[in-house]
Amino acid sequence: MASVLQSSLPLCSHHASPAKTPTISALGAFHFPKTHHFSTIHRGSNCNFKTGFICQSSSDEVTFIQPPEAAKLKDDLIGSLKIKLLSAVSGLNRGLAASEDDLQKAEAAAKELESAGGPVNLSDDLDKLQGRWKLIYSSAFSSRTLGGSRPGPPTGRLLPITLGQVFQRIDVFSKDFDNIVELKLGAPWPLPPLEVTATLAHKFEVIGTCRIKIMFEKTTVKTTGNLSQLPPLDIPRIPDALRPPSNTGTGEFEVTYLDSDTRITRGDRDELRVFVIS
């Protein structure tokens, strides 16, 4: 989004002495030398300078808006950083196969993209959360457990559980926030493995500008594959009185980058997650 630089500059009706040309950084921000003067700016007018920026004036205040060329520079930079991040996490089986070196590369690439994108404000961009998002990387999966940064069954050949795709389905109107996990459960030979989809239903609320709190409601397990005709099974939320202190049924995370097809979040246990729209 084009940034706006506002400055109360003296208006003049004469040509000023020659001065340095303002420059535009890679992110589209303007840098005006202190000695720079502008020529013939009239109150209440719109103007388009040949130097490559647009100004709108009202009274004694002049607003400078970055031109399409500067916005394109930022878009190109963000596009290249997104490719860099996706390349860093590709082939890691959503983080389950990540080494310490892989974790550091993914972290560095995510920070670059977060910095280029700037702060997320969900007050303005809440609609961008809408949709079904596919998890392509979680730093917590490097712990080799299906619970990520929380307790969960370990992954490995000795446990007949294979993690499939993981999705988040978000509805900004109903405040529904569902974590959807595809699992394959091993069965004794000659029976085929059991394929199921577990949907962990939550409600969510936005806290501040970019933090999201989710409240667990229930889990629904639905068989797929050869047994897809079986009805789904709902597992209700455990009453708070019976819930262990370590499992409050709530969680929080920050959205640190968000656009129409890519989202980065950082969890309350330092978990980095990368999603793409699906």
From TrEMBL:
Chief subcellular location equals plastid
Does the keyword Transmembrane feature in the UniProt annotation?
no
Membrane-spanning segments: none
Q: Which domain of life is it from?
A: Eukaryota
Keywords of the record, alphabetical order, are:
Plastid, Transit peptide
Location of the Plastid lipid-associated protein/fibrillin conserved domain: 81-275
Q: Where in the cell is it found?
A: Plastid
Q: Does the keyword Plastid apply?
A: yes
Gene Ontology, cellular component aspect? plastid
* Name of the protein this chain belongs to: Plastid lipid-associated protein/fibrillin conserved domain-containing protein
